[in-house]
Amino acid sequence: MADIDFEVIFEGFNEGQSPLAHLDSKTFIGNKGQASEMKADVISNPGFVTQSPALADLTNGTQAGVVDQLIRHILDRPTASDTTYAIGTTKLFKLSSTAVTSGGSPSFPQAITNAVSGESVIRLKANLYGFFNRAADGEILKMPLATEVIDHTWGSVTDAVLEDAPHPVATKEDVMVFGNGRYVGVYVEGSATLDVQKLDFGQGSEVVDVVFHSNIWWIAVNYGEGKKGQVYLYDGSAISTILSDEAGVGDQKIGFLYVLNGIVYIAYNDTSSTGFTIGWLSGRRIKPLRYFSGTLPDHRQKALYRNTILFASSVNIWSMGASVEQLPIQISTLANGGHATLGGIASPFGTPMIASTDGGSNHRLAKFSGYSTDSEWKSVFVDITSGKMLGKINTMIVSTKALVGSARCDLKIEGNQGAVESSEFEISTAAKTRHIFKSIDLKAVEDIRLVLSYANGDTTNACPIRKVVALGSFVER
Amino acid sequence: MAKSKNLSPKFKIPSSEKELELQIGQVPMGSQQGGLSLFSNKFKRGYGDAVFGSDSNGIWLGAAEFTGAPFRVDMNGNVVATSATFGEYISKAGTSQVFTGDFNLNDANVKIDGANKRILINDGSNDRILIGYQLNGF
After folding, report:
1. How far is Cα A102 from Cα A66, in angstroms, rounded to an integer?
2. Interface of A with B in 214-253 (CB under 8 A)
3. Is A467:A428 a contact under the CB 8 Å cutoff?
4. In this predicted complex, what is the ipTM?
5. Which of A243, A274, A314, A345 has the most Cβ atoms closer than 10 angstroms to its Cβ?
6. B29 → closest Cβ in A15, A245, A322
7. pLDDT digits (tens, 9 = 90+) for A16-63
8. Residue-level pLDDT at B113
9. Do the bridges between strand A127-133 and strand A138-144 make them parallel or antiparallel, or are there none, so unpaired?
10. CA of B97 to nearest chain A CA: how many angstroms apart?
């Protein structure tokens, strides 16, 4: 056996991506459980890395069923047992945890008169309200949950038409507060008063999200085409036209606000740099927590999953947060979202649902189910030189859960920043928890990173990996 | 055999609960304790309409907001009150005069003139009733 001059340990996979992964996919910065690139699940069983959840279409959940358009927003709470609603570009959908309703009386999905872009749906007491844009303006529909008969022009008849803009919405008790372009609108059901322009943030502004927390409405506003963001606090009674407080994000664009465990999180980006940020409102400042790449998610693309914030970015579903507070906050690419363009995501029944479209005739509404083979995890690069000597990996030892059935993961080592790589080694033997691979066919290199691929994995039995140890020796250049 | 080097990557990451702590001395964005709300633009104490508050409109009592409150004072010192009872004196600021001032009653007004020991009732154009003393009469 060759002498062992060094070891490299990879473990603690709950730490997600490297803090610089959004800037450099071959970064050397990070901890031993952090990834330079990944699409894998590190939150379901913290400490282990395992393959991403797969997506299973809901019954009727594609164009072959009744989802013939992108579902843009999913109501993230049930309105009754196993029932919720979603809004597409032109239709209102009714959902259960397993199916998209087809037919009934009234027949779902219901077409929304003159709608070209559904924005949001929300329940307030006994009614469902839907916000949507028409060709040149916006509108609010009202649908009693008891009859499911839609009043398509409730907003304009009760007060006025909306702006053609995003319409984030939140409720508390009998008050509904919503974004309406440069305005914030308020509906108080107790007094049946709707004012679609209750607050005015001025020309060039756009309200991008609204949440209710700690008896206060938190309103995110972008200015100047997203070159500046501001978060305002508005009194819980929503009667006044005066704001209570404010905090500036700076010259950055806000995507969404999200309340979790009493903390208001904020997703935003600096248009002059690469990547996006999730932070939290810490006092009067925004404290950045973690960074990600892709696109900036909006008010329709956030949900709760295993005590972390689930959000959509580009074609992927991301997770940010800690499964338990004693562990570090992680950010990770959790899964593929389906087709190339993602719509709404939500977890009204616990399991996340994701809507997507290919931009053509293919659409789907799917939920996490089983395991995906579109999944891999790559560590940060590690320098394995010593003076003039290079490192040669001789042995890899992998610790896993006791594997079941056809569970499998393939391991390889990349060297010299990805210029060379070893063969793949199969981690698969049933019931085995310690897998040792010798005679690693990677020449002496300056640096290595571990690559775990689930391309040949099983869709029923996962292959959770707890620890990988690389043993090597130094050799003369 | 010599002890092998541990080349494992290292990067210190605090726990979630540590990272999400509010720093000591950091001023929160607004403060709420029970029915007390303190924000940079607004102060309110109470629930529903039983509220004492202040904002850029002025101060008020008896409503959730300034507008329509049964007692309110705007930033120019204009007072609106449902009723008022004065047990002692009304004095004019900056003088030693007491019991002096105009009380407007629609178009008419009542002038209490403490300095000259008299009360005048005016119909909106002319003084009509004098109680007390006036040199040379009307």
Report:
1. 6
2. 214-216, 233, 235, 237, 239-240, 242-247
3. no
4. 0.86
5. A345
6. A245
7. 999 999 999 999 999 999 999 999 999 999 999 999 999 999 999 999
8. 74
9. antiparallel
10. 39
d(CA A72, CA A112): 14
What lies within 8 Å, CB to CB, of B21 at 6+ separation is: none
β-strand partners of A103: A108
CB contact under 8 A, B15 and A328: yes
Query: pLDDT class for B137, splitting at 50, 70, 90?
Result: low
Q: What percent of chain B clears pLDDT 70, i.e. is strictly above it? A: 77
Strands B127-132 and B5-6: unpaired
Q: What pLDDT is stored for residue B95 in this prediction?
A: 65
Chain A residue with Cα closest to B67: A240
Pairing of strands B42-47, B36-39: antiparallel
Of A214, A237, A247, the CB nearest to B32: A214
Tell me how close the Cα of A63 comes to any Cα of chain B, in angstroms: 42
Distance CA A150, CA A413 (A): 59
DSSP for residue B16: H
Of A233, A280, A379, the CB nearest to B20: A280
Phi, psi of A124 (to 5 degrees): -130, 110
Per-position DSSP letters for B63-89, written without gaps between them? SSSSTT-SEEEETT--EEES----SS-
- Alpha-carbon distance A163 to nearest alpha carbon in chain B (angstroms): 27
In the numeric block, which tokens belong to residue A117? 């872009």
CB contact under 8 A, A32 and B10: yes
Interface test with chain A among B1, B8, B37, by most A beta carbons within 10 Å: B8
Q: B104 φ, ψ to 5°? A: -85, 130
Across the interface, do B65 and A15 touch by the CB < 8 Å criterion? no
How far apart CA A50 and CA A48 sit, in angstroms, is 6
Confidence of residue B1 (pLDDT cuts 50, 70, 90): low
Query: Helix, strand, or coil here: B18?
Result: helix
> What is the identity of the amino acid at A168?
P
Indicate if the alpha-carbon torsion angle A290, A294, A299, A304 is positive or negative. negative
Q: In the prediction, which pLDDT does B24 show? A: 74
Contact status of A165 with chain B (Cβ, < 8 Å): no
Question: What residues of chain A score a pLDDT lower than 70?
Answer: 1-2
**Residues of chain A with C-beta less than 8 angstroms from the C-beta of B2:** 3, 5
Expressed in angstroms, the distance from the first to the final Cα of chain B is: 122
Residue with tokens 């085409």: A225
The answer to whether residue B89 scores a pLDDT higher than 80 is no
Q: How far is Cα A66 from Cα A304, in angstroms, rounded to an integer?
A: 26
Chain B positions touching A249 (Cβ under 8 A) are none
Cβ–Cβ under 8 Å, residues A196 and A180: yes
The span from the CA of A153 to the CA of A141, in Å, is 6
Residue B26 to residue B107: CA distance in whole angstroms = 56
DSSP H or E segment with residue A155: helix A154-158
The confidence band for B39, taking pLDDT boundaries of 50, 70 and 90, is confident
